[in-house]
Amino acid sequence: MNDASIMEMFLKRDENALKELKSKYDGLCCYIAGNILYRREDIEECVNSAYYDIWNKIPPEEPHDLKTYLCRIVKNKAIDRLKYNTARKRSSEYEVSLDELSECIPDRRGDDISAERLAAVISSFLRTQDELHRKVFVRRYWYGDSVSKIAEYYDMNEKTVATYLFRTRKKLKEYLKKEGYVYG
């Protein structure tokens, strides 16, 4: 079933919409949450919570891209769960990737920077990158893949992946500065 049909079901409040959404995207949702969380129970809870949120948000919201909308909710749920689980300890691979990204993303506290505007600028930047650099960046910072997993996926050396990521983050930081984002 395509996303437009699933959206229609949500808008009509047809409970089969959840069944269809889960059938189509459960694997992807578990993959995203699984790259952030490690306990199966946490992954399942996070994904199910995302389905619950979507049921409550559609309508009135009508996302243009259901897959991206769902993935964003799952990712945010997983990050929140990770923060809760690791309130006293920091060791997660995903937290390492967030720390890497924090080097080039401005701190939004105290600013009126819109998350949507920042996301649009980052998307614009990524479209300027060659396909492999863009894909490596997205696998690391959107899907939360480890450097070794990315290297295996693209048949690359881990050091090459790390270099790609470092250079792309550096370019992103410069791009954001040109767009007017200030670092504190």
Highlighted features:
Arc Repressor Mutant, subunit A; Rna Polymerase Sigma Factor, Chain: A; single chain; globular; 0% strand; mainly alpha; 184 residues
Short description:
The protein has 184 residues and is mainly alpha-helical. The chain has helices spanning 3-11, 16-34, 40-57, 66-85, 93-102, 115-127, 131-141, 147-153, 158-178.
Walk me through the structure:
- The protein is mainly alpha-helical.
- It has 2 domains: about 5-85, RNA polymerase sigma factor, region 2, helix turn helix motif (Rna Polymerase Sigma Factor, Chain: A, Orthogonal Bundle), CATH 1.10.1740.10; about 95-180, Winged helix-like DNA-binding domain superfamily/Winged helix DNA-binding domain (Arc Repressor Mutant, subunit A, Orthogonal Bundle).
- Helix content is about 70%, strand content about 0%.
- It contains 9 helices and no strands.
- It has helices at about 5-10, 15-35, 40-55, 65-85, 95-100, 115-125, 130-140, 145-155, 160-180.
- The relative contact order is 0.10.
- The mean pLDDT is about 85.
Layout of helices and strands:
Layout: H1 3-11, H2 16-34, H3 40-57, H4 66-85, H5 93-102, H6 115-127, H7 131-141, H8 147-153, H9 158-178
Helix pairs in contact: 1-2, 2-3, 2-4, 3-4, 7-9, 8-9
CATH classification, class level of the largest domain: Mainly Alpha
- CATH topology of the largest domain: the name is Arc Repressor Mutant, subunit A
Overall number of structural domains? 2
Number of contiguous helices: 9
- As an assembly, this protein is single chain
Helix content: 55-70%
Structural class given helices, strands, pairing? mainly alpha
Q: Give the end-to-end Cα distance, rounded to a whole number of Å.
A: 47 Å
Round the Cα radius of gyration to an integer and report it. Answer: 18 Å
Average pLDDT figure:
86
Gross morphology? globular
Q: Could you give me the name of the CATH homologous superfamily of the largest domain?
A: Winged helix-like DNA-binding domain superfamily/Winged helix DNA-binding domain
Low-confidence stretches: none
The second-level CATH architecture of the largest domain is Orthogonal Bundle
Strand content: under 5%
